[in-house]
Specification:
The complex is a heterodimer of chains A (170) and B (413).
Chain A lengths: L2 H23 L2 H18 L8 H27 L17 H11 L3 H12 L4 H8 L3 H31 L1
Helix pairs in contact in A: 1-2, 1-3, 1-5, 2-3, 5-6, 5-7, 6-7
Chain B lengths: L1 H16 L6 H35 L34 H10 L7 E5 L2 E9 L5 E10 L1 H6 L8 H6 L11 E2 L2 E4 L11 E7 L2 E7 L9 H16 L20 H8 L4 E4 L6 E4 L7 E8 L15 E3 L3 H14 L12 E3 L5 E3 L9 E5 L2 E8 L6 E2 L9 H13 L2 H4 L2
Parallel strand pairs in B: 11-13
Antiparallel strand pairs in B: 1-2, 2-3, 3-5, 4-5, 6-7, 8-9, 10-15, 11-14, 12-13, 14-15, 15-16
Helix pairs in contact in B: 7-9
Classes of the chains: A mainly alpha (170), B alpha+beta (413).
Chain lengths: 170, 413
């Protein structure tokens, strides 16, 4: 892949990848770092040569990078004895309404595999078969995760709205 | 549910739009610097690996291992001689191996260790890479030395070679461990390896010099006699040769005073050579004249060439020594018989400046060879010949006195 093609790929899918990784991690800055890291790795080793779907490669690489960062931060939390198992979601993301931030926060409460399936299928628009291949599980499993994830997300958002309503009545 | 999915997509899209991509060139630059770091790291790792391999190769055990029972062999504490006198004058590698093997220390290039003992053989080569001699350093730990009946002996050099001129610091006696390290750089003994055991003394000798010195049974016998005498406590050092074996050119203290004009003169080691130390300080330096007289085993003058000039390798000092040659009226020798030197095309001896024991200058007049060594005021540092090419006045004066003093047949022409 020559430099012009790389540039086109970069300008075309950078923002999209940041959004997807943000949906997965809930950390906007970390998502940008992870996507940039994926591109740097692609430039460094020219690994996109011969790749059929470069965006998928970049997405996977970015998610892996995000996981690595998350593990490092988790170890740091343990070292610093902060006593938290999950890192907080960014409550203020420029250009993103509070409702959308709350949605991402709700998404982060789902189990990792369910969340990843939802992000890949519903946000990255990957077919179920492709998600199954990416995650290394049967198609049925992916479908089950998607179903449970969506249901759980709907419950969470409903509870959240009720809570807000109740608070409003008070 | 569709609404929920749309909301998710919208949130992701908004989050993506909220993050404008940094310039493409910036990521390219980061990728480039990362590539460079990776290349450098690979190069450093390769260099470290090569260094490790080289170090491992150098530290590899010697080619020939000592016999299996080598370390357990009990010491022979009788007074039998493992060496015959004839062994001394065969400075070949095979002879050295034979001698060393008979003495219980086979030649193993490199270092071998046993319980309480470390043996190290070292090979010396001449300028043209010919084997010049071998050195054996044996170090016993105190308990092992005591168990073997080895006495801690100081100054084995003089005892074995009859040469107390060997620098004492070259023989290490540390605590109760005994290490003999014979490395005489004096030019009056031949290169020979001798590993000798007499009684409860095990010693190794490596000396070098003129091959013609140790050429008879008499010398070797003398060495062994000295060892024996030392063991029996009948001799502490060698003795002065009989007066009738002194040559006309060998100087006395009175001669030294007369020559140098200094009242404080010390004559050292009269048996082997006359050493006249003029300790009288002169400005900025002290001139040490060593009036070296070469001797055969039978105390006859060894050298009969007229003159040789030893000089430093620099042109400036070479010219200085040429001036010395002019003053003494001597011609250059045709061969270099002095260790640590080589003969230049113009017949000038060139001193190996890497050899710290090499003299600053060597002037041979007839049968007399004079080493000139310049010291600093504190006798700490050898100074090389003046780089200006100028002869200090005191050098000229002293040379004149030497020439005037020496007999005609010795001074030559």
């Amino acid at each position: 892949m020559d430099d012009d093609a790389l540039r086109d790929l970069y300008e075309g899918c950078y923002s999209r990848l940041v959004g997807q990784v943000y949906a997965m991690t809930g950390d906007h800055a970390a998502a940008q770092d992870a996507v940039q890291e994926a591109f740097v790795r692609a430039f460094t080793s020219r690994r996109l040569e011969g790749v059929d779907n470069p965006e998928a490669w970049l997405r996977t690489t970015a998610l892996n990078a995000a996981r690595s960062m998350w593990r490092r931060l988790r170890r740091l939390d343990v070292l610093l004895d902060l006593g938290r198992e999950t890192r907080p979601v960014d409550v203020r993301v420029p250009g993103l309404s509070p409702e959308r931030v709350a949605l991402i926060a709700a998404l982060r409460t789902l189990p990792v595999r369910q969340r990843e399936a939802i992000v890949l299928h519903h946000i990255a628009d990957q077919p179920v078969t492709e998600v199954a291949a990416t995650m290394g599980v049967p198609v049925g499993t992916v479908k089950a995760w998607l179903s449970r994830g969506r249901s759980r997300l709907a419950e969470l958002l409903t509870d959240d709205e009720n809570a807000m309503t109740e608070v409003g009545h008070d | 549910m569709t609404d929920l999915v749309d909301q998710l997509r919208d949130a992701a899209r908004q989050a993506g739009q909220a993050a404008p991509p940094p310039p493409f060139e910036e990521l390219e630059s980061r990728a480039r610097s990362r590539r460079h770091r990776r290349t450098r790291a690979l190069a450093a790792a390769a260099a470290a690996l090569i260094a490790l391999l080289v170090a491992a190769t150098l530290a590899w055990p010697p080619v020939s291992a000592p016999p299996a029972d080598h370390h357990r062999r009990p010491p022979q504490v009788s007074n039998d001689r493992l060496l015959s006198p004839g062994d001394f004058y065969q400075p070949s590698f095979q002879a050295a191996k034979d001698l060393a093997g008979r003495a219980g220390h086979p030649i193993c290039p490199g270092t071998t260790s046993g319980p309480g003992r470390t043996t190290r053989w070292r090979e010396f080569r001449t300028f043209d890479q010919k084997v010049r001699g071998y050195q054996l350093v044996i170090r016993y730990s105190g308990p092992v030395a005591a168990r073997r009946g080895i006495r801690v002996v100081e100054d084995c050099d003089g005892m074995l070679t009859g040469n107390t001129a060997v620098d004492s610091q070259l023989t290490d006696v540390r605590g109760d461990a005994w290490r003999v390290r014979h490395q005489t750089a004096r030019p009056h003994v031949t290169e020979v390896l001798a590993v000798a055991r007499a009684g409860n003394i095990v010693a190794a000798v490596w000396v070098r010099g003129l091959n013609r010195v140790i050429t008879t049974d008499g010398y070797a016998q003398g060495v062994l006699d000295r060892m024996q005498a030392r063991m029996n406590g009948t001799s502490t050092r060698f003795t002065t040769p009989p007066p009738d074996q002194l040559t006309a050119a060998m100087l006395t203290e009175a001669d030294a005073r007369s020559l140098t004009g200094h009242t404080r003169v010390e004559v050292k080691y009269p048996a082997v050579y006359q050493s006249i130390h003029t300790c009288q300080p002169v400005p900025r330096s002290v001139l040490e004249w060593r009036h070296v007289h070469y001797q055969r085993h039978d105390w006859q003058p060894l050298l009969d060439e007229r003159v040789s000039i030893a000089t430093d390798t620099t042109a400036a000092t070479e010219s200085w020594h040429r001036l010395v040659a002019d003053i003494t009226g001597c011609a250059a020798t045709r061969e270099s018989a002095i260790p640590g030197t080589k003969l230049g095309d113009d017949g000038v001896l060139i001193i190996d400046t890497d050899d710290p024991s090499s003299p600053t200058a060597v002037v041979r007049i007839g049968r007399v060879l004079v080493e000139i060594v310049l010291w600093d005021d504190n006798f700490q540092t050898r100074e090389r010949a003046p780089s200006s090419g100028q002869i200090p006045d005191f050098v000229t004066t002293a040379l004149d006195r030497i020439r005037a003093h020496l007999p005609e047949e010795s001074a030559g022409g």
